[in-house]
Fold these 2 entries.
Entry 1:
Amino acid sequence: MHDPLWTPGDTVVERFLRPDGSIGQHHPLRVIADDGTVLLGWLPADTPIVGSRLADGRLFREAPLEERFRVPRVRVADFWRDTSTLRRIADDEWSSVWWFFDADGHFLNWYVNLEVPLGRTPSGPDRIDGILDVSVEPGGRWQWKDEDEAEEAVLAGRITAGQLERLRAEGERIGALADAGRFPFDGTWTDFRPDPDWPAPGLPDGLL
């Protein structure tokens, strides 16, 4: 365990990088807790983010599968839509766990974003999105998400075959925790409510 970099109420920016080191997306998070190796952050609905689109203007999922990782992307101003997320980001884990909440604050489900961890900067955690994900429903039922995209990402050079193997192993580890009803799928933080006095997290200027 290391000394915490951030204190509750701080804003950090989670960055999703590409393999070439360029930055794809910026997600601002309100710090709930940080012990120096595990960050718990809050991203409420309608928070401004830096997202990405294909350079020809299409959304990622509007393109055929074989084009999604081959057409260049550009960063765009966007918003985190519809749901709010509480994120647990551990420096040494190839995943982050997201608790999803609806507009009334009711817990919906967990989404496990499989990721390549790249450590921290003073402004926030850096990750590479691993494409492959795991969805976990209340009660522990889980399933893989985006398996076809992950295979295509390897073919396009977006992630390596070795990384995908490691990401699959991480997904299996997560699935075993869900099957057993163990943390983080034991009900912890499903009743989370943000401090009403804290404003929504914001992005620093100059990202676009």
Entry 2:
Amino acid sequence: MAVMLHESSLADAADRLWEELPGHRVEILNGSIVVTPPPDGPHQDTLTWLIEKFAEVGARKAGLRYVQGIGLWLPTGPDDYAVPDLSVVDDDYKDALVEKNCYAPFVFRLVVEVTSSNWTNDTATKVDVYARAGIPAYLVADRKHGEVLLYTDPADGTYPDPVRFKRGQSVPVPESVGVSLDLSVDTLLDGDD
């Protein structure tokens, strides 16, 4: 779909696309607008399952919230922001509102992306921008390649190489998140049965 944009800023263009394409996710990553179509059922099953798992281990009692689709303000450009599939954030994250329903990176403990048709954004671009934002843990359920990648402890705006998990394995949620939890790779990739 070709869209003619004559807005006064990149942020205005992103807002217009968000209005024009209901159900799509609009983000600005490294100064470029990225539009993602609505997710499929297994994608959403995975997110629901994750919410249930974090609830089971008492994440709320540990001072955390687990929320879908909230904005993460990025330091990579004046209008840059991402909308992760699921985020585990500090309980008081609402106090860190920056603008446009986006929150400061320091309240994010874990960001989760489940790949869809634009999987390269999750496995490349977002690795870079989340590291530069200082997100302590980034989990990617890479459905295209049948593996889960866990990036942790960014230094100088870069994550070390990820730990890779294959089917039949479990992914331990990093201690920095604040809860103890192991996640099934199969369920992360396929959604809850």
